[in-house]
Amino acid sequence: MSLEPLRNEIDKVDKELVKLLERRFELVKEIGDYKKLHNLPVLDLAREQQVLQKKKEQLSNKDLWPHFEKLFQHIMNISKELEK
Ligand SMILES: C=C(O[C@@H]1C=C(C(=O)O)C=C[C@H]1O)C(=O)O
């Protein structure tokens, strides 16, 4: 068996991820514009906790949670950079 079929599948998944993350980052920039206009801080810790909690609930394989937690915290950190 070769690795090619699995890697092709990964490439397809990654293509979707790129599209979805691009959309998320566009929305984050809109949120950044709104916050600037209304003098609101970039960081909203309560919202971040809510985002993480929702992901935890949505995840089927809970063993993966520590990895998802790191991943989403990283995505939110990048998001905050983009809001500035
Ligand atoms: C996008 C926002 O700004 C920040 C980034 C968040 C995110 O990436 O989900 C969540 C909360 C904020 O710290 C927001 O306030 O909704």
Automatic annotation (TrEMBL):
The keyword Isomerase applies. InterPro entries: Chorismate_II_sf, Chorismate_mutase-related, Chorismate_mutase_GmP, CM_dom_sf, CM_II_prokaryot. The keyword Coiled coil applies. Signal peptide: none annotated. Keywords: Coiled coil, Isomerase. It is an enzyme of class 5 (isomerase). Residues 3-62 form a coiled coil. SUPFAM superfamilies: Chorismate mutase II. Its EC number is 5.4.99.5. This is Chorismate mutase. It comes from Acholeplasma laidlawii.
